Amino acid sequence: MRPDIAATPLYVLGFGAWAESSQRGSLQGDDWKVYELVVRHFLACLSWDAKGQETRVGLRIGGETFHATGLYIEDMGYLRVYPYERWSDKTLPAYIEGEQLHDFQLRIADGQTQPPDLLNEADLIALMDKFGIGTDATHAEHIEKIKTRQYVGVRDDGRFIPGYLGLALVDGYDAMGNLQLAVFTSQCCC
């Protein structure tokens, strides 16, 4: 992530107290939530990294390959003070490559895959950060521009829905063979 020189970071400068009544110097409601977020983020930045081991297993049954991924958390690190980001243990049994499994159970469930949710503004900003588009100071301007130009519309729940111009743009990128742009644009808007 590129440093954003347009805004300075927030620092904890003093002790905040939560109180149910409106005592002088106490914080309530949203004020307390913002204070707690800033404090926890500050402490997380000073904490050590969380450490974990990811396990991947591939299983071939009847010519089909199935995959499972597990996570073993070795050290919670900054996650101890920052509950807004979560890791959860999902430990897989130890297997040996080429091992044949004799005691297992298969269940086939009828169903259909679901398309991913349409993006909301926070999702789009995260993708813009990931791909280096704009800065924290310009994200809102970029998003407003795609709405004004009708590349996307916004549903009542705040999720973007592709407009005709946005769909045409994706089709155009696809026709030019620029799949990377088409994939990013379709993930953003479709």
Describe this structure in words.
Strand 5 and strand 6 form a beta hairpin. The chain has 190 residues and is an alpha+beta fold. The relative contact order is 0.09. Helix 4 packs antiparallel against helix 5. Among the domains are: 52 residues, no CATH class; 56 residues, no CATH class. Helices cover 33% and strands 17% of the residues. The chain contains 5 helices and 6 strands; from the N terminus they run ββαββααββαα.
Spatial sequence of strands, sheet with the most strands: 1-2
Categorize the overall geometry.
flat
> Kindly, what is the distance between the CA atoms of the first and last residues, rounded to a whole number of angstroms?
25 Å
Structural class designation: alpha+beta
Poorly predicted runs:
none
- The helix fraction, in percent, is 25-40%
Number of helices: 5
Radius of gyration: 23 Å
- What is the β-strand count? 6
What's the helix-strand series? Answer: EEHEEHHEEHH
What proportion of the residues form beta strands (DSSP E)?
15-25%
Reported for the largest beta sheet, the result is:
2 strands, parallel
Whole-number mean pLDDT? 81
Strand and helix map with partners:
Layout (H helix, E strand, L loop, with lengths): L16 E2 L7 E2 L1 H18 L4 E11 L2 E12 L45 H10 L8 H10 L3 E3 L5 E3 L1 H13 L2 H11 L1
Parallel strand pairs: 1-2
Antiparallel strand pairs: 3-4, 5-6
Helix pairs in contact: 4-5
Quick tags:
6 strands, two-stranded parallel ribbon, two-stranded antiparallel sheet, 5 helices, DNA-binding, 190 residues, alpha+beta, flat
